[in-house]
Write a structure and sequence with these properties.
Layout: E1 7-10, E2 15-18, E3 21-25, H1 31-38, E4 42-48, H2 51-60, E5 65-68, H3 76-83, E6 88-91, H4 109-112, H5 116-125, E7 129-132, H6 144-153, E8 163-164, E9 175-176
Parallel strand pairs: 3-4, 3-6, 4-5, 6-7
Antiparallel strand pairs: 1-2, 8-9
């Protein structure tokens, strides 16, 4: 696949080509969306609580619908109405309370709960795929298994592991779940 190339998808009646439509939950400035866009996805929307990040995302993806607010305060149905079909849900829930960069002690257990918004949004948007990125320490979270079970209950198969950015051409070791 080349950058910008459309992906062939099979429907029940015909073959057709279409671009993957992507919504980025906890989008930040759009790093994950940038990668998805380079792989050919159309970024239809993003959501972030930090205004500067949401504004930057909008500058990076001017055709996307962008929400600035906390995921738990925005209705996924409103997102679905404004973005239309979503094939790929990207999500980078808050990681500061999992990260050893913060002294390995949660600042606020509530920040860890943002991961459950992935389940809430996926349940409404019903994307074909979900990609979640976080720090490896998320696997030690006491509710990690419950969170995975919630995604499974929506009908998704789960595959997870730890990747190191240096194995993909980045000049630093940056491990991510």
């Amino acid at each position: 696949m080349r950058y910008g190339q459309t992906v062939a998808c099979r429907t029940s009646t015909t073959h057709m080509c279409r671009r993957i439509r992507c919504f980025d939950l906890f989008c930040g400035a759009g790093g994950s969306s940038c990668g998805a866009s380079m792989a050919g996805a159309r970024i239809v929307g993003g959501l972030d609580a930090w205004k500067l990040a949401a504004d930057t995302f909008k500058m990076n993806f001017p055709e996307a619908v962008v929400w600035n607010g906390r995921a738990e305060e925005i209705e996924p149905r409103d997102v679905a109405v404004k973005t239309g079909r979503v094939d790929l849900l990207l999500a980078s829930p808050e990681c500061t309370s999992h990260s050893v960069a913060k002294g390995n002690a949660p600042r606020c257990e509530m920040s860890r709960q943002t991961a459950f918004q992935v389940i809430r949004y996926a349940g409404v948007l019903q994307p074909r795929w979900i990609v979640v990125e976080n720090v490896p320490q998320m696997m030690q979270w006491s509710r990690f298994g419950e969170w995975l079970d919630g995604i499974r209950r929506l009908g998704y198969q789960i595959c997870y592991g730890v990747l190191d950015a240096q194995d993909y051409g980045v000049p630093q070791s940056r491990k991510r779940l």
